[in-house]
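During the first year of the project, the team set up a workflow for recording each protein of interest as an amino acid sequence followed immediately by a discrete structure-token representation. This format lets reviewers and collaborators read both layers of information side by side without switching files. As required by the reporting guidelines, we include two representative entries from the current panel. The first entry is reproduced here exactly as it appears in our internal archive.
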Amino acid sequence: MAQDSSGRPDRTTGVTRRSVLLGGATLAAGTALLSPVVMRNAFAQDKKAPVGNYPAGSEGDSVFVGICTPRTGTYAAQGEDEIKGYQLAFEHINNGNEMLSKMSPNLGKKKGVLGKQIAHGVADSEAKPNTAVQAQTRFINQNKAMMITGSVSSAVAVAINKLAEREKTIYLPCITGSNDTTGKDCSRYSFRSCFYAETAANAIAPVLIKNLGKNKKVAFLTPDYTYGHTVRESTQKALEQQGGWQAVTNQLSPLGTTDFSSYLLNIANSGADVVVNINFGRDAVLSIKQAKQFGILDSMKLAIPYLAPFVAEEVGADTMQGVFAGTDYWWTLEDKFELAKMFNKAFRDKYNTYPEWGAAEAYLQVAMWADAVERAGSFYPPDVIKAYEKGEKFESLTGPVHFRAEDHQLVRPVTIVQGKKPGDMKTDNDYFSIVETVDGGPLMQKPDAFGCKLGDYT
């Protein structure tokens, strides 16, 4: 007990009724002397106002991450690859892992993120914006997601950017090549780490001009949505300005096209020297196969500024030999980068196959998010965002990278590959040789060039 009935001090606490009353009076007087501003600031330091799912989503032993990526439709193979990368990252973070500790001193040595395990759910976006928004909204409302992630379609990424901004939930798009994702449709709550139209174009254009020559005529085969439009615009501009190339036709096809014959006929009759195929996923596979069948690739060179995972495997080395392409990651980068070698081994041990760049990107996104949370010391979204915006270097699978505060775009290298002849392949999956890994900084536009205006933190 604090005191006995006579008012004598309790032998444990040394507190009397008189001292309590005097202390209370002194506290009341001191409080009255404090200004309302000081009181508000003191309260704010002790307890942050709720933002998004904070604090409710981080009060238990785990935090939830919602993944929504295509598992059906034209981008399904790329979506499944992403899921493998995410799951490997969660496993490494939850259990601790040496590779993570080499990426950042804040990771790998302890289990979890700020001591909490990562739980996750997976939904099929079907590469449709409305479907993705509905699924991620369920993860936010029902599962109290503290982070949402996943995309192959840039139309989906842009839609989820808007959702993340509205719900104040951090979103990490995975594959999204449109300039708009961190341009006019950027979000304070979204961070993109993959390469994109402008960097792809500026990386591949010098290689094409050097190997194929100047003043060439080029035909574009373009998916008719934000990804295709911006990749075509950036690639055409780079080829015109750097090599005097002339665009003779731009064939727009709807996402999910299966018969490209009418578009390919127009390309065949265009007089082009080079066909630049911007299609992605199954659309890329079908359009390349059909171009080969129609004999177009016998008279025109094929170039792919934004290479979809699994395209080489699907169309075959005979078709891909000699083709120049831009990518985020190719597994033979392990010959140059230790972390790439460690990642490849971990991925092969778990899945018995080599990773494609969607899996590498998914792993990187989760690792960088965990690092930002650790540096923030909290899951409070504005603090995590500000940790990202500090631009601190992070060791990726292909060298040091960092985010730009102005548009939330990762400054990262772009790798240019060339298809190998079948006889030069050392393994069944050895489709490409590395031509060059290009420093990302000089490839990028100024942060405000594509209209990015980040929203508020709260």
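The second entry, processed by the same pipeline in the following quarter, appears below.
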Amino acid sequence: MAELTLPPICVELEQLEKLTTLSATTIQNMVARNEFPPPRELSARRVGWLYREIAEWAENRPVSNIPPPPNTGAKKPRAATASPASQGSPTAS
């Protein structure tokens, strides 16, 4: 029988940061301004976010007209660096 793989039901703040690429502070500020789904009480001393609410929030974000910043993690071409041997050494004449 094939194994069933499901997305998590609840995610912790650390996982949420990775899922959304937002910092914990930004998430907490957005929750306070009602711009982000609030966490759910999982037990007396633990909270988590519902994965489906986070996915719905992300899908409903407006499309951006802003291009990504230049530092997107893409590999940049390396500048050609001359090795000391190829730079030539002064020769006595």
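For the second entry, the following points were noted during internal review. The two ends are 82 Å apart (CA to CA). The beta strands are 10-11, 40-43, 46-50. Both points are flagged for discussion at the upcoming steering committee meeting.
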